[in-house]
Amino acid sequence: MQEKFVSESSEIVNETLFVNGRPRIPFHYEGEIQPWDVIRDWGLDFWEGNALKYICRAGRKDGNSRAQDIRKAIENLKEVYQQCLEGQVND
User: Fold this and answer.
1) Contacts with 4 (C-beta within 8 Å, 6 or more apart), sequence order
2) Are 70 and 55 in contact (CB under 8 A)?
3) Is residue 30 classed as helix, strand or coil in its secondary structure?
4) Exposure b/e, 54-68, CB count within 10 A at least 16 = b
5) Do 76 and 51 meet the contact criterion of CB atoms below 8 Å apart?
């Protein structure tokens, strides 16, 4: 019985989160260029990638204003900046 539940759960996840093996694109990221592609192609770290994500979706996600998303991007960039100052990130 447990195996059937896991199998059914996996199918539901695959149907709702993926299209043709790629993550389903939320409406607030709709566009020709996807943030995850840029993050991967440019080799961005976690903080840089998060900043990019918030900039790309600024003002488009329900419940988040443009100012809120820009503030989140700035907070992530502050972390990158601090890591640079401390020599934790290569320039």
Assistant:
1) none
2) yes
3) coil
4) bbbbbeebeebeeee
5) yes
d(CA 21, CA 56): 23
d(CA 69, CA 51): 9
The single-letter code of the amino acid at 4 is K
In this structure, the number of other CB atoms found within 10 A of the CB of residue 51 comes to 21
DSSP assignment letter at 23: E
- 49 CA to centre of own chain: 7
Q: Distances in Å between the alpha carbon of 35 and those of 13, 25, 44, 72, 85?
A: 21, 10, 11, 15, 26
Q: Which two tokens stand for residue 84?
A: 């640079």
Reading the chain (91 residues) residue by residue, the pLDDT tens digits are: 444 444 444 554 445 666 667 666 555 556 677 888 899 999 999 999 999 999 998 988 888 899 999 999 999 999 999 999 999 876 6
